[in-house]
Every structure is written in structure tokens, then in C-alpha cells.
Amino acid sequence: MAAALARQWMPSLPVSGSEGICFCWGAEQMSSSPPTPPHLRIAVVADRAHAAQRLVSALSSPQCAARPFSLSAADAPRRVREMRPSVILIRAGDGSLGAAGRFAQATRSSGAALVLLTPHASAEALRLATAEGAMAHLLEPVTTQALLAAVTVSNARAQDYRELQQAVLTARQSADVRAVVEEAKRVLMGRFGLTEEEAHRILQTESRSRNRKLIETAEQVLRAETRFARARGSASSWRPAGRGAGRPREE
Fold first, then answer.
1. Do 151 and 138 form a contact (C-beta atoms < 8 A)?
2. I want to staple 241 with a disulfide (CB 3.0 to 4.6 A). Which of 46, 110, 133, 245 is the partner?
């Protein structure tokens, strides 16, 4: 009886609109050939033009597309962000570490892996690499094999970090959804004397019938309960005037 009453109450809630959900599935093709390594876009930023060209030549391969940028150019951070690189390789001498730090901060939003290349392992260079979250810190002279290994591994670690961030965000969102649904279930249980299972089933049925997400139905229940609580509060504060109120007193 209570469950039927709750179902009659649920359709009375206002509908704020429904959103369709589209799932896109990627098909995996089976092949006997080994997988092709991911194509890396590498922004090579250097304090000297010849150093940038040398690094670009070393990194150029079928799997890597490297472009040079000047560390001192005012528009270089913007151009690097527009490139959307997988890896940002910054080569900075001892006198350019400050500029390298500012460049790393200006391009942090790109989400690219940062690799720092310096001639010495000075305390300032180590502080820069640590503060800016460099995935690798290389020292000159560096071989082509070491350079390619550093950018490849750094890109993989950056992808792992982004996936971890997304997993944490998803977990937080799931916890928020559960909290809202549990509160909506408590409202239905208290208002209609339902069990937790019955309240949950009603939320699911209402969501399917209106093609809505469960969180949307739960939020609608809570908004309706808030409005009802306010209406009850207004009604309890109102008192009708007594008989004869406002009439002049007879002598």
C-alpha cells in the first residue's frame, strides 16, 4: 500500500528535462602484427637555436614528431599549448633556469609530460625539476637512445597520472551520487513507511519510466521534500483571526 502511494506521489514531481545517454564503444581489431607505438608530439624548447635543432634531429623518427621553440620567445608558451604536445622537452643552461621555470608554469595546463635537460645537476636545476613535476631530468651530453627512452617513458607516466586523476574524480562523483540517492531513499522511507529496498526500487522505476538518471530522480525527490517542508513551515506559522477580531469593542 505504501509503495503504491509513493508511486502516485512520484509522478507529481516536476520534470526538469531528461538527458539521453550515449555510449560509444571502440572496436578492437585483432592482428598478428605487433602493436604500433603511439605517435609522440614533442615540443623542444631550448635557450639556444642550435641546441633546439640538434635535439629535434635526434628525436625525429616515425614515432616522434618534434618541433623547436625558443625559450625566450614571448609567444612560445601559447604556440606550444596550441601544438598540444605529448612531451615538452626543455633544454636550459645555468643562466636560463629561471626562464625554464616560468615556461613550465605557463604550459602546465597542456597536461604534457615535462622532461628537463641541463648541462649540470646543480641545486637550482634539481629544485626546478622537482617543483615543476618533471618526469625526467637528463644531463648533457645525452645520447639519442637515452633521449628517446626518457620521452617515451615520461609520456607513459604522464598518461598513467591523467588516468589516476580521472579515476579519483570518478570515485568522488560516485560517492556524491550515492549520498544523494541514500538521502532520497530516507525521505521516501520516512514519508511513506517504505523499506530501504522498496524506496530504492521506486527510484529505479521512476528513473526508467522518465528516461532519467538515478541521481536526477533522487535530486528531484529532495527538492520536492524541501518545498513541502517550507510549505508546512509557512502553514504552521499562520494563525486565523479569532471571532470578532478587528471589530470595535462594545461598551
1. no
2. 245
Please, which residues have CB within 8 angstroms of residue 15's CB and are 6 or more apart in sequence? 210, 220
161: which strand partners? none
Q: Which tens digits make up the pLDDT trace of 13-47?
A: 544 443 333 333 333 343 444 444 458 899 999 99
Distance (Å) of CA 228 to CA 13, 193, 200, 233: 11, 17, 21, 9
**180 grid coordinates:** 544523494
Give me the torsion for CA of 223, 224, 225, 231, rounded to 10°.
110
Query: Which among 62, 70, 63, 64 has a CA at the least distance from the CA of 44?
Result: 70
Same fold across 40-142 and 167-234: no
> How big is the CA angle at 211 (ends 201 and 8), to the nearest 5 degrees?
50
Residue reference for cell 517542508: 229
Per domain, the residue ranges of the chain are 40-142, 167-234
CATH assignment of 40-142?
3.40.50.2300
What is the C-alpha to C-alpha distance for residues 141 and 111, in angstroms, rounded to an integer? Answer: 27
pLDDT tens, 74-111? 999 999 999 999 999 999 999 999 999 999 999 998 88
Using CA atoms, how far residue 174 sits from 33, 183, 211, 222, in Å, is 39, 14, 20, 18
Architecture of domain 167-234 in this structure:
Orthogonal Bundle (1.10)
Residue 45, C-alpha cell as written in the block? 624548447
Residues 179 and 185 sit within 8 Å (Cβ to Cβ): no
CB 92 within 8 A of CB 71: yes
